[in-house]
Amino acid sequence: MDFNLSKEQELLRDGLGKFLATRYDLEKSRAAAKTGPGWQPDIWSGFANELGILGAALPEDVGGIGGGPVEIMVIAEALGHALVVEPYVDTVVVAGGLLQRAGGPVATSLLEKIVEGNAVVALAAAEASSGENWQDVSTIAERGGDGWVLRGSKIVAMSAPLATHLLVTARTDDGMSLFVVELDGATAGIKTHPYRTVDDRRAADIVFDGLTLPGEALLGEEGQAWPSIATSRDEGAAAVCSEAVGCMRKVLSDTVEYAKQRHQFGQPIGSFQALQHRMVDMYMELEQAVAAVYLTVLKLDSEPEIRARAVSAAKATVGRAARFIGQQAVQLHGGMGMTEELAIGHYFKRLTAAQFEFGSTDYHVGRYAELTT
């Protein structure tokens, strides 16, 4: 089986890598995440207008390039390597996939805005009462005249504080449905509690208390949203796995370089066999994670059960690798490993958080076991 990238995919990878190396400063991005708006809008604009990566995996009829899972893998890994906090996975992969499958004029218009860099879309699906089971929805949407009235609450809606639009799951008479909420000017009936996560991302808990929506806010067919939600959750998990691989490549590289430079007892600590063994173990975990991601990317367009099994295998494998590599890197750097000044500490936090996005490691181990029995 050929795992080599095409020339176009190599150009995409190299162009994005050069952009991030010259334009994406880690110190500046952390400052924006901690004290500013939570991201850098000029970088997002560059993604859209200079690189075109926001449309790389979206259809040509909305201004995209028409790529697929491999393009997403390439982009997400590069973003992870540079520790980018801008909401690519949430907006392009998850929301973009949901909007494509929903179809219709509202979804098409929003996809065009995403490609142009003029819209940031976040999914609000998790609820406190259901935990990691997104299919268990307590938020309700009732008919109200020609529109809908939304009541309920969502938790940990990633990128919601940055978003121009929300995609919200809600229970209707016919089952789970998906609604789009335009946040510009939406004040009555919605309350948000934004916060910064441990890895310097932005999220929010949201309460809907009689939020009125127009009839066209319903995306797709009423009561038929779950298959699309399940697909997008798996696509998001695969993209986060690719992002984590990019993080782990950087962490391993920095750790090896540090071991060459740090001297103890008159010689580099990298010359000590015990530490060499630990770095080899880190490398082996990374290679297993890479293989699992490749398998998942090849299976994303398969039947739901095959796709879900491959995604859960990758999420469990990458989760284990992220934990091991992150912890070993911090230990090998000593006390410096968790300081704000050193990049390793920031990467460690991102790798820790990635283990829980779109289903925790334990969740996916359990799902894999169910799908293979």
Question: What do you see in this structure?
Answer:
- With 373 residues, this protein is of the alpha+beta class.
- It has 3 domains: 7-119, Butyryl-Coa Dehydrogenase, subunit A, domain 1, CATH 1.10.540; 123-219, Butyryl-CoA Dehydrogenase, subunit A, domain 2; 226-371, Butyryl-CoA Dehydrogenase, subunit A, domain 3, CATH 1.20.140.
- The chain has helices spanning 7-23, 26-35, 41-51, 69-81, 88-102, 105-116, 226-261, 273-299, 304-333, 343-354, 361-371, and strands at residues 121-124, 140-144, 147-158, 165-172, 175-182, 190-196, 202-213, 218-219, 263-264, 267-268.
- Helix 7 packs parallel to helix 9 (304-333) and helix 9 (304-333) runs antiparallel to helix 10.
- The mean pLDDT is 93.
